Amino acid sequence: MITTMECAVDAQSLISISLMKIHNSRTQRGGIKLHKNLLVSYVLRNARQVYIKEKYAEIYRMQQYEEVMTVCNEIQELNPLDLDAEDADNEEQARAACCGEEMSLCDPACHKGAAQSAAHVRTASTLLGCSPFEDGSKAAEPSDYRSCCMEASPVSHFDQFSADNNRHCNKTTVLDLDTHVVTTVENGYLHQDCCCNPPQCGQEAQSPGKKRKVEFGCCISDMEEISDFTAARKRAKREDCSYSNPDYTDTSNISNLISIFGSGFSGLLSRQADLEQICSKQALASLGAWTRAIVAF
Amino acid sequence: MQWCFSQVKGAIDDDVAEADIISTVEFNHTGELLATGDKGGRVVIFQQEIENKSQPQFRSEYNVYSTFQSHEPEFDYLKSLEIEEKINKIRWLPQKNAAQFLLSTNDKTIKLWKISERDRRPEGYNLKEEDGRYKDPNTITSLRVPVLIPMDLMVEASPRRVFANAHTYHINSISVNSDNETYLSADDLRINLWHLEITDRSFNIVDIKPANMEELTEVITAAEFHPHQCNTFVYSSSKGTIRLCDMRVSALCDKHSKLFEEPEDPSNRSFFSEIISSISDVKFSHNGRYMMTRDYLSVKIWDLNMENRPVETYQVHEYLRSKLCSLYENDCIFDKFECCWNGNDSVVMTGSYNNFFRMFDRGHRRDVTLEASRENSKPMQVLKPRKVCAGGKRKKDEISVDSLDFNKKILHTAWHPQDNIIAVATTNNLYIFQDKVN
């Protein structure tokens, strides 16, 4: 897989080109071409994987910088009598250290202790083979994950994706690879930002009890097999009711991949439910610059 | 072996009407007839004239024999979809009587056409005048037997069967079985078996549609019956695999008998690996021992007895590997090139861009690049081999990759079953070349 930064930039343009192709195929004469759309979706997946990897690498680099700076500050500020500060710093450091490990793929996240680890492990195992709608393992879902996605996500949190905003030494940004929850640790206090995957945000808002699916199957090879159209699955379930001909619905679902990216095409897709449109707009507001390029279409 | 220009069919205009774009080319089993299908749903059949014995150095020419509208554009009201009239494939049936039969298909419907000649007409009816008016019976004083008198040759094409409503997805292949009774049709996800006489039903023999369409990972791209074994057929997939199925094993051939797959070279991995490994055509050799597959950059020959890798691989235009991104942007990467064998399976041919086509001599390990162009179309003009310069210093007569015209593509080629005569389709022209007879 191509992994240079330059290709991450190409990945962006590939993603937008691919989305355009999928969109155009809906109006082409002769109907949607299943073969071509399938191939385009492979390019989309590949480009997305590269882009996400690059982003994670970037965050990890920023995170490591933060870690170093935190330790430096700690050394400067450490007051043996101020136990709270020390605990907070230790917590931050520990979290930073353990969350640094999150950057390595497939490791369960270690936010907030073992209970969450268990939840994350369950997440991973759920993803490996089960339907995303399975309720069994969701009982232990921490409420803050749920709530984070219920709130509208301020754009400012996502600025932390860019290197610039991590100049603040008292902030640590951590991205949970399994649940895609972005966490900011500020002065020892935990803030959870909205998840970075727009459709999951939307889906979560709709059904809080349900576990989020990890869209980006970059780590587990099995997930690559099922991830291509997984985001469209929920939409597909809804659309199955509206159309009597399953074959046609199935074919047109491929082109609903546009919804994965919550792009500006939402207004062009006449079949989209209101809820999805709201989620798309929400997601849109929370996405970084690269998806704004798609919106421009 | 040297190739000479013989003929070119089609408009000289640079401005190509979309309906005139050639979409399929096929010789019949004797090579006497050459059929083309176009995007406008028309079929044009050329016939080889009887060889001129006094001038043996000139092989006979192909002239228009019959033209008919095979398919019309349709509209599926239930799905709000337009069905293109473009002819995807033509396959000839072996000749059984005076008439010729061929199967032509668009995305949804296959039709069996009968092409018959009429070169005599009856004359001398007792009750009818020559112009068809009925005579007054009272004026008839004697009886005579009508006779057949020669007339100008008239070639009639009539649709004898219409095989419809069996495919939800787009038909990409049809193949006549060696039993001359059945044929298969393949779309993206299913393959159906038909009897040539029966139009109201077909058997589904392959179905790769997953229960959940979101789990779809591959589609069927081509399918063909074995030339001699009526129970055997193969189908290729978008993942670069070929499955050989035996219809004796079970009614539904979802489970393959053999799976032909070459492991991917990890060093060549790119964003477009899946696209370029998708097989666009599969053809059995005439002797039935090998099959050939075409993917975006190469042609592979497989021995039916060896599944883990091809016995031969030929690079068609490897210089395009570094251009895949732009080819993706302009959609050229989705072009479906076909390939064909010569009569004795010693040479294979396939098309490329810039109106180039390539031939690979398997025995002598030689390959050549030739061009189909109006500039090289003087009668019996010998085609000069072309060369593409991939990088570095461009030699004289070489063409650099960046100068290639990607709008001029040769997707469809056909080789006469016995002679060294080839038909090469550019966008809207059909070139016929033959080997130089010394």
From TrEMBL, chain A:
Pfam families: IER. InterPro entries: IER (IPR008653). Belongs to the IER family. This is Immediate early response 5-like. It comes from Lates calcarifer (Barramundi).
From TrEMBL, chain B:
InterPro entries: PP2A_PR55, PP2A_PR55_CS, WD40/YVTN_repeat-like_dom_sf, WD40_repeat_dom_sf, WD40_rpt. SMART domains: WD40. Keywords: Repeat, WD repeat. One of its GO terms (molecular function) is protein phosphatase regulator activity. Belongs to the phosphatase 2A regulatory subunit B family. PP2A consists of a common heterodimeric core enzyme, composed of a 36 kDa catalytic subunit (subunit C) and a 65 kDa constant regulatory subunit (PR65 or subunit A), that associates with a variety of regulatory subunits. This is Serine/threonine-protein phosphatase 2A 55 kDa regulatory subunit B. It comes from Lates calcarifer.
